[in-house]
Design brief:
The structure holds 2 protein chains of 2 kinds. In chain A, 10% of the residues lie in helices and 7% in strands. Chain A is mostly loops. Chain A has a single domain, classed as 2-Layer Sandwich (Herpes Virus-1), CATH 3.30.40.10. Chain A has a two-stranded antiparallel sheet. In chain A, strand 1 and strand 2 form a beta hairpin. Chain A starts with 46 loop residues before the first strand and ends in a 20-residue tail after the last helix. By secondary structure, chain B is of the alpha+beta class. Chain B is built from 9 helices and 4 strands; from the N terminus they run H-E-E-E-E-H-H-H-H-H-H-H-H. Chain B has a 4-stranded antiparallel β-sheet with strand order 1-2-3-4. Chain B is globular and about 50 Å long. Chain B starts with a helix and ends with a helix. The chains are: A little secondary structure, B alpha+beta. The interface between A and B is medium-sized, with 27 and 30 residues.
Chain lengths: 86, 303
């Protein structure tokens, strides 16, 4: 049997390469979604991962770190939040 | 902009907390005038051993427009005789509601507000504070002194207030009997049974040491997740189901060999037992049953 392909639709899925949790601990929206201030997921609304391995939407975490009460601590483990370098 | 962020997060948590399937029976929550930033919360103490048992304590919870970056406030609407409730306004002295700015309180930062907290975690803290007062940092000195030195007086005052609070129970509302989540008796029942069975079999079948052990360790780790020494690095080991107590400098290759070794051990074990019992089947079931525990974790951390 011969088949001629006239048209095909490609569908792909993506997820961040960070499997530990699914939701941002601050805004409780999926990592693959956006922080509450963004419109487009992905590179426009990236994740940030700390030395402590806790991940958040970058915008959510930065907003927390600018508050005085954060004292620069990770919301999860309250260690000093330092962006993981790798 | 930020306002809509906080309101959508609050709406989500409100829905979760009022969803009849998932709601905590100790709380009855309504919005005040439909305002997502002001909640009317009724706290019910369902623990029959608590002197606050039977009370229906109305309270008001207010959320800042930048929630969750700042904590909500919580106050009881009737006077409540409790070492950690301010007699003046019914406010509550509980560290989880304090933001990190206040340096005078002497609370460890680990107990203070963080945006990773949720309404549910706040309510759970309040519930546990009500049942287990902390007279060392009193908001109501009289109550703290009575709690310490004159328990009879303390209990009597509380009992009077519990009776009084029952006037607030809305007509037709019945205080739940059980502290367990008020899930309807449907499929969820089956799930509960499943977990129960699981725990049972774990206890019964001690043959494979490793499985029993790391179950416990896994749960312990997630409960006490602020234990600084237990890195997330280690948790990988936990998930993969092997030792916890090795050195911090756990070499990955080392882990792998250990893992391989145990799986070999298991094989030998089960092979050796084969003549006596249909062990391999059991083993399989055990291993299968272990996996749901990792699924449980997100749930655990939620709380």
């Amino acid at each position: 049997m011969k088949v001629t392909i006239n048209r095909w639709n490609a569908v792909s899925t993506w997820h961040w390469d960070h499997a530990q949790e699914e939701l941002c601990g601050i805004c409780r929206v999926a990592f693959e979604g956006t922080c509450p201030t963004c419109k487009y997921p992905g590179d426009d609304c990236p994740l940030i991962i700390g030395d402590c391995k806790h991940a958040f939407h970058m915008h959510c975490l930065l907003k927390w770190l600018t508050t005085e009460s954060s004292k620069g601590l990770c919301p999860m483990c309250r260690r000093k939040f330092k962006t993981a370098t790798d | 902009m930020s306002k809509s962020a906080s309101s959508s997060l609050l709406l989500k948590q409100y829905k979760d907390l009022t969803d009849p399937k998932r709601a905590m029976p100790s709380f009855r929550i309504e919005l005040k005038d439909g305002n997502i930033y002001v909640w009317n919360v009724a706290v019910m103490i369902l623990n029959k051993e608590s002197i606050y048992h039977g009370g229906y304590f109305k309270a008001e919870m207010r959320f800042p427009s930048d929630y969750p970056f700042n904590p909500p406030t919580f106050r009881f609407l009737r006077p409540l005789f409790h070492p950690n409730v301010y007699p003046k306004d019914g406010g509550l002295c509980v560290s989880i509601l304090h933001s990190g700015v206040d340096a005078t309180s002497g609370e460890a930062p680990s107990e203070r507000w963080s945006p990773a907290q949720s309404v549910e975690s706040v309510l759970v803290s309040i519930l546990s504070l009500l049942e287990d007062p902390n007279p060392d940092s009193p908001a109501n000195v009289d109550a703290a002194v009575a709690f310490r030195n004159d328990r009879e007086k303390y209990n009597n005052t509380v009992r009077r207030q519990v009776e009084k609070s029952k006037e607030d129970i809305p007509a037709g509302f019945k205080i739940p009997e059980s502290e367990v989540y008020a899930a309807p008796q449907t499929e969820d029942e089956v799930d509960d049974e499943f977990w129960y069975e699981d725990a049972e079999t774990d206890d019964d079948s001690d043959e494979v040491d490793a499985s029993g052990d790391d179950d416990d360790e896994g749960v312990a780790n997630f409960d006490g997740s602020d234990d600084e020494d237990v890195d997330m690095e280690d948790s990988e080991d936990l998930v993969s189901g092997k030792r916890v107590d090795t050195n911090e400098t756990s070499l990955d290759s080392d882990t792998e060999t250990t893992l391989m070794k145990t799986s070999q051990d298991r094989k030998t074990l089960s092979a050796g037992r084969e003549p006596l019992t249909p062990a391999p089947e059991n083993e399989k079931v055990d291993l299968l049953r272990e996996t749901p525990h990792t699924k449980l974790d997100p749930h655990e951390t939620d709380i």
